[in-house]
Every structure is written in structure tokens, then in C-alpha cells.
Amino acid sequence: MKYLFLILIVFCPVLHAAAQVADTNYLKQLYDRSVNFSEEKLDSISWNAKFIEKQSAAIGFKKGKILSQRLFGLHSELSGNYNDAIRYFLSTLSASREGHYPEYEISALSDLAITYTEIKQPEKAKEVYMECLKLTRKRGEISSIISGYSNMGAIYNILNEPDSALYYLTAALQLCKQHNNQKTLPFIYNNTGNVYFKKKEFSKAIEYFRLNKALHDSTNSQADLWIDYLNIGDCFIELSRYDSATYYTQRSLEIAQKLGSKSKEADSYALIAKLYERLGQYKKALDFQRRWYKLDTALVNEASSRTIAEMQERFHAQDREKQNQLLLAEVGQEKLRNRYLSYLTAAAVLIGLLVGIFLLVYWQANQKLKEVNQVIGKQKEKLSALNQEKNSLISIVSHDLSTPFASIAMWSHLINEDSSLSDDQRKALGKIRDSAQSGERLIRNILDIEKQGTSTRQLEIEDTNMGAFVAHVVLEHQHTAESKNITLIGPDANTNIFLLTDQDLVKRIIDNLVSNAIKFSPPGKKVWVEVTGNENRVILTVRDEGVGIPDGEKKLLFTKYAQLSPRPTAGEESTGLGLSIVKRLVNELNGTISFSSEEGKGTSFEIQFEK
Fold first, then answer.
1. What phi and psi, each to the nearest 5 degrees, are found at residue 507?
2. Is the dihedral of CA 121, 127, 133, 138 positive or negative?
3. Could you tell me the residue range of the domain that residue 242 belongs to?
4. Given a cut of 50, is residue 43 above it in pLDDT?
């Protein structure tokens, strides 16, 4: 979340200056005041940007274009016009790099990252923030480093990596205390509160949000107070203190409407919908969810995303053109160098033809190597662009598909309250609700398998009795096995085999393997789950008497979205994601997985964990 502090200024000097040419110091001071304005002073930001642009052109102030373009971008961002905002910020970034102004380059990168966060592209925001932090550290300005650490904490929290977020936020708070930097404290308090909220430590989170509100009460900045009320209200919802939650959520909505901010109003609607859902008032919850979805979809729609992508491509094309110009200059220098080399070679012929041939062969090999490197570089750029396009598509799918499923579930709850429904109608509602939940699980599986790795959180290692733990997990699948007349045999719960591991990841591995074994076994068969071990390793085995895997398809078993010819024996759902997830989880725990299978006779999976 970006914080904008309200600073009162006197407009009389500005109006007077419009009648004459202002000097550079005055324009810089006007810019410094304007960048801290909030939504309450949108008109002033626009007016000052135009004034700086006009006066800078009159006096030949080169930096003036950068200052005015950034103010235009801030005005667009606060207005919710993210297309224009990114266009202005990219222009600012390009001009800053051309003029070699690293301080303005850092500001442009920070503005871009904030905007990417607001349009639900946190991975892109993280990439830009990292670039920004590198420049900040290189310059060594403490206040900018503190802001960079705080921003990294916020973006890691959005990406569900709370431990990484706390690392950066703790570093920022320590620098604040060392250098008595009070200005950045609201950023750090708010972001730290968000991290503890993500970790479900709501009482601790509310302490930081209240510290933040105390700071903002003294400035009476409505934009800052809005986020304080929103965050405190969300904590009270999770603590089931609904009277307090109602007060704070309503205050956040009032402030958002007063500011005229559509994005803030949408966030307030979403939180109020959550409150009414917890209270069991599904009609009101559905009404506010519709209001949120209408505003949120309007802010981040398909046309907007396409326009943003086009602007990014234009910017990168300009950047590539500059690189090509530099490359042409280097080629020209290389040609000149080769010309001198030819003269030297001609002289070297007098020494010996053999030396000349050797130099020629070396030069040709070097040229070929350069060409190969250029081809590889271009291929890497294309692969990176395709990967970014894939990640953006997944973000859009998760955003656009989750809302319809949530609406279906909410409607089914609401209709189920009607006492006049027959048993058949209630069964039909149950099937609708199960279908919605199945759709949500599929989305979660797709997002899980498309992550760069499974280390989205810090491993929670503890000494685990694998015999008792695996027996408990297997017991959860007994009902499903019995419904298919399958005998599920687990390990002896009294077997004492201990392993230092993460129980949550081990449970996910067992759940996937046992579920698959039941799914692909005909009725009347058996499924075994065994745990053995020695002084060096623990071995987990899951084997069945199922349909088995054809030899020609075994190499595809752990690949994403693999749809093999064997099908579930009772028509169960199969997405081809489970074993790919298992493979990643085993790797995360530094284990190895292998399997053996014979078509028509069954399959056995063996996982080995080092002690």
C-alpha cells in the first residue's frame, strides 16, 4: 500500500508565478510538495504538473520533463487510470536513464512497482522493486533504503511469503531507529501488521495497525486513515468481534466515498461482504460482493491489461533500439580494430604464412561464437516473455474464475435456507455446492503446480513419529476406500520410526498417493501404506493392485497435466496434477521418489527421506 502524506501549501505564489518565468529551484520545490498530495488534491497535482511542464520548456530545464511526467503519472494512478499511469511512469524511467539521473530512475521504478501491485501483478512488482533496491543500495541513501526494504516486505507478504516479508521489515525498522527516521514508520507499521494478519496472529496485527492510526490521527490524512480503519476492521472480523468490525468497516467506506477513490471503495465493499458472510447474512453479503466485483472488474479489465502490455512492449522496444545502436557502435569499432589487425597480419606474413592462417581461423571461430551467443540471448528473451505471458494468464484466470465459484456457493447457501425445499431439491443444491468447491480446488491445484517451487513458506521442521503420523493420515481415507469396497491397510501406529521433517508437506504427499491408489483400483482390491527405516533413512511405500501404467507412458508420470490412458475405475475426477505436485514436495524435503508398475497388476511408489 502506498502512503501519501498531506502537506498544506499556499497557492498564491503559484498563481503569481504563472504570469512570469519561474526558476529551476522554484519548480523543484513545487514538485517536492506535489508528490506528497493524496486524492484530496488531485486537481492541484494536475495543475502543478502542467505548470512545471510549460515553465521548464520556457527556460530549457531538462529535468522539468521528468518532474512533470511523474506528476501526471501520480495523478492518473490516484484517479484509477492505470493505463495512463504506467505510460507516464515508463516515460519518466526512460528520460531518467537517458539523462543519467539515478534518483529519478529510482522514483520511476518505485511508482511502476506500486501500480503493478494495484493491478494485481505482484510478481512483476517484485521484479521492479528488486531493481529499484539495487540502485538504492548503490547510492547509499538511508531513507531510500528504508523505503525499499519496506516495499519489499509488502510485496513478499502479497506473494504469501510472510517470513521473507518480516526479514525486510525488521531491517527497515532497525534502520529507522538507528537514524531516527520517523517519516517511514507508518509504512513499516502497516506492512508489519499485514504480515501478522497473513500469519493469522490477529491480535498482534491489530497492535501495529493501531500504532499506525495514532500517527495518522495527528495529520488527519483521510487517505491514510482509510487503510487504518480497513485493516483494523478486518482484524476484528477474524477475532469475531463483529460490533467493532462493523464500526471500522463503515468508517473505511465513508472515507473512500468522500475521497472519490473507486479502488478504495471496492476494497471497502469486499471487506463488508466478508463481514456479512461471517454474520450469516448472505443476502447483504451477496449485495456488497456484487458492488465490489463491479468496481474491481472495471479497474482491472481485459482492455486495460492489453493496453498495458502494449505500452510495456513499446518501452522495451525503445530500450532494445538503444542497445542495438550501442551494438552497432561496438561493431564499427570492431571493424576498425580488424582493419588494423589485417595490416599487422600482412606484416606477420613476412614472418610466416602459418601464423597468418592460425590468426584467420581464430578470428572466424570467434565470430561464429559471437553469432551463437547472440542467437542464445534472443531465445532467452523470447522464453522469458512467454513465461511472463503465462504467469499473467494464470493471474487473470484465478481472479476471474474464483468469483463465479464463490457466488455459486453463496447462492446455494442462501437458497438452502428456504424451509419449503423438498429432499430432491436439497440434494440438487448439494451437488451444485460440490461442483463449485471442485472448481475452486482445480484452480488451487493449477496455481500450485505453476509456482516456481513449493517453498512459498519457511519449512516447519519437527521430530515426527512417522509410524503414528502416517497411520493417522491413512485413517482419513478409510471412508473413501470402504465406499469402493477397497481394503486400505496402513502401518502399525505403534511403530517408532522418527524423522525430522515438515508434517504438512508429508501429509500432502501421502494424501495424493493414497487418493490416486484408491482412485485407480477396482473394487475388491487392496492398497498398502508402509513405513520402514534404518539408521540413515526412512522409507515410505504406497502400493496397490490397480490398473497399472503402460510402459510407453511411464516417462510422463510426473509431468504437469499428464493425462495417461488408465482412467479412474469409478469415473472419479483426474486432472493430471497430483503426481507433479508430489514430485515437487519430495524435492522440497530433500527426498527421492521412484516407482514400479505393471499394467493390470498395480503400481508401487517408494519415497526415501534422509535422516
1. -60, -40
2. negative
3. 207-300
4. yes
Pairing label, strands 592-598, 602-610 = antiparallel
Q: Does residue 338 lie within any of the structural domains?
A: no
Q: Which amino acid is at 23?
A: D
Whether residue 516 contacts residue 562, with contact meaning beta carbons closer than 8 Å, is answered with no
The per-residue pLDDT of the chain, averaged, comes to 81
Looking at the domain assignment, is residue 558 inside a domain?
yes
The count of domains in the chain is 2
Cβ neighbours of 111 (radius 10 Å): 25
- Looking at 269, 300, 331, which one is the last position of a domain? 300
Asked whether residue 455 carries a pLDDT value surpassing 80, the answer given is no
Average pLDDT over residues 393-421: 70
Q: Is a pLDDT exceeding 70 seen at residue 306?
A: no
CATH number of the domain residue 573 falls in? 3.30.565.10
CATH number of domain containing 226: 1.25.40.10
Between the CA of residue 169 and those of 172, 191, 267, what are the distances in Å? 5, 8, 24
Report how far apart, in Å, the C-alpha atoms of 475 and of each of 302, 421, 468, 489, 504 are: 46, 36, 11, 9, 16
- For residue 355, being part of any structural domain is answered with no
CA-to-CA distance for 362 and 348, rounded, in angstroms?
15
DSSP 499: E
The answer as to whether 77 is a domain residue is: no
Cell numbers given for 185: 514508520
Query: Which three cell numbers, joined as nine digits, stand for 280?
Result: 450469516
pLDDT band at 336 (very low <50, low <70, confident <90, very high): low
Q: Backbone dihedral region of 433: left (phi > 0), alpha (psi from -120 to 50 degrees) or beta?
A: alpha
Determine what percent of the chain is predicted with pLDDT higher than 70: 80
Listed in sequence order, the residues at least 6 apart from 500 whose beta carbon sits closer than 8 Å to its beta carbon are 461, 462, 463, 464, 611
| Residue 166, amino acid | L
* pLDDT tens, position by position, 122-132: 888 888 888 88
Average pLDDT over residues 77-96: 89
Closest to 569 measured CA to CA, from 512, 519, 513: 519
Q: What is the DSSP string of 378-434?
A: HHHHHHHHHHHHHHHHHHHHHHHHHHHHHHHHHHHHHHHT-TT--HHHHHHHHHHHH
Confidence bin at 318 (pLDDT 50/70/90): low
pTM (2 decimals)?
0.41
* Candidate ranges 4-18, 75-89, 452-466; pick with highest mean pLDDT: 75-89
CB atoms closer than 10 angstroms to residue 598: 12
- From 300, 333, 351, the end of a domain falls on 300
